[in-house]
Amino acid sequence: MIQAVIFDFNGVLVDDEAVHFELFREVLAEEGVVMTDRDYHERYLGYDDRGCFAAALGDAGQAFDHERLDGLIERKARRYVEVADAGLRFFPFAAETLASIAARWPVAICSGALRSEIEYALERLNRRAQVAAIIAAEDAHKCKPDPAGYLQSLDALRIHIQAKSPSTAGTVLEARECLVVEDSQAGIVSAKGAGMWAIGITHTYSTPQLRQSGADAIIHGLETLTPDWIDHHFARDPRATW
Fold this sequence. Notes:
Layout: E1 4-7, H1 17-29, H2 37-44, H3 49-59, H4 66-86, H5 94-102, E2 107-110, H6 115-125, E3 133-135, H7 148-164, E4 178-182, H8 185-193, E5 197-201, H9 207-212, E6 217-219, H10 227-234
Parallel strand pairs: 1-2, 1-4, 2-3, 4-5, 5-6
Helix pairs in contact: 1-4, 3-4
């Protein structure tokens, strides 16, 4: 059933959701906007940088335009590089999981993070070569929970598969053949809206929260996510056993 795997990034492979919250909080505070931890997790976590800044400013009653958002994104990006250079944290088995999954299926990243942040982290993991496609904040037409990013990932994977194996012409990767790994409720909703299977990993939200968002299966760490595990649970409709 599964022919490709798509990973979210922050909160799934890179343990930096707390970093992003602190940087959003820091930059917004300079604009006179207060963001609490509860605000971030209940309202803003699923957004990319542009969506988060726009929503937070709008909620605070502040006007904004494209130029203002660009400036806020640039300031946060500069601070992220400083923090990342000081030491970027990855979840256990991030490198091993990417390698084992990519050895079996084409892998994509679909994230609200900037492409430079994703590329930097993958290089640190020494796993850039294992990722066939990246849909980053600059690429996505709309941010999660809209399914646009995952549909763009599907298109990118189709192009990769066709380029790698021209003999597969006429065989088109379908959304129902893609498995998504997500840590956020918005991400689960996005993946399901794209017609894909979704695994929720409890790095950020609880099992009931991820289930409520539509997750087809739940794992508690990347060490669980092996090709054998995927074969066992997704060789048939996983809702029959989960």
